[in-house]
Amino acid sequence: MLVDRYQVKIPRIDSSATTINVPIDLTPQMVDQSEIVNREFVSVEVDNAINPTLDYEKVRFLPADIFPNATATTVNPANVDVMQQVIYKISLLDGSGNYFSTNPNGTTYADAGFSDDDLRYRKNKLTKSFLQLSFYDSDIVTDQRLVASMSINPNITSADIQPNSTLYPVANKQLEFRLRNPLTDDEAFGEGFFVYYFKDEVDINLPEFLYMRATFNNAKTGVATGLMVDGGSVPAIDELVGQLHTRYVLHRTVTGYYYAIDDEFGGTPNNVVYNTITQSVTINLYEVNVL
Q1: Structural domain contains residue 14
Q2: Alpha carbon separation from 207 to 3, 136, 271 (Å, rounded)
Q3: How far is it, in rounded angstroms, from Cα 149 to Cα 156?
Q4: Is residue 11 part of a domain?
Q5: Full-model pTM
Q6: 163 and 19 in contact (C-beta within 8 Å)?
Q7: Which SS3 state, helix, strand or coil, does residue 43 take?
Q8: Which DSSP category does 98 fall into?
Q9: For residue 8, is it within any domain?
Q10: How far apart are alpha carbons 258 and 62 in whole angstroms?
């Protein structure tokens, strides 16, 4: 058997014996580190090698006016008033840099370049135009992720038909996207009325915030117009970023899922207007206008 061999010199030849001091450390140490290897290395590497299981189930959120305000953390179902209409109203600039005022209610389809024939014959110039709503997880444009988006197309309803069964002229039709609740209105078109978001991201008494930025895409002119939330002032270019978003607050209660559009966000109270009589909420959007 092979072993390590050592030679020990005896200091004195007249001595028949010698003493060898062997130091022994009495501090306890782990002899086998397999537990650490399994815990700190193997299990970690196994988790890294397996793709995580994520729940991508989405639920439908209904628009609602929530008392006392949109950002309330504790929501009593009795204080939730479901809206029956969501109206996106758009104001465009004229050639002089002012918002159109030929119609007392604001910008019309005629101001956007559409003709009566575009409306009467449902031409692609009209039907392919749309309002793009992009939802982000933050209102900081340099540090935000796009989490959802939706496109809303113009819709012709019975409200656009005159008593003589002809359509109202485009000069009288406001440039707005009026969405009604398809659960209670058979004529309504559901796209844009509901907001769909991940179920696990919203918990009871723990609302989720989304920030919407809107763009109007005109298929007739080929122009995509960015929109902001305040039409009462002309911001400087470095102030514009604070006026691009409308905040949506997603709530979950014991009775359902709702979203409230914050009418106090950003200090622009005219951006979002609730009407409890008609059970509607209007989001006013303005073509970007900067100094």
Answers
A1: no
A2: 72, 15, 21
A3: 23
A4: no
A5: 0.79
A6: no
A7: helix
A8: S
A9: no
A10: 5
Domain count, the chain: 1
For the chain, helix (H) and strand (E) counts, in that order, are 4, 13
Look-up of token digits 């992009």: 134
What are 40-51's pLDDT values in tens digits? Answer: 777 788 778 887
Range of the domain at 80: 58-287
Residue at 4 is within a domain: no
**Looking at beta carbons, which pairs linking 113-121 to residues 24 or more positions away fall under 8 Å?**
113/218, 113/220, 113/221, 114/170, 114/220, 115/170, 116/167, 116/169, 116/170, 118/170, 118/220, 119/156, 119/160, 119/167, 119/170, 119/173, 120/167
pLDDT in tens, 116-137: 899 888 899 999 999 999 999 9
Spatial neighbors of 111 by CB under 8 A, at least 6 apart, are 92, 94, 100, 102, 103, 175
Using the structure block, give the residue that is written with the tokens 């609602």.
64
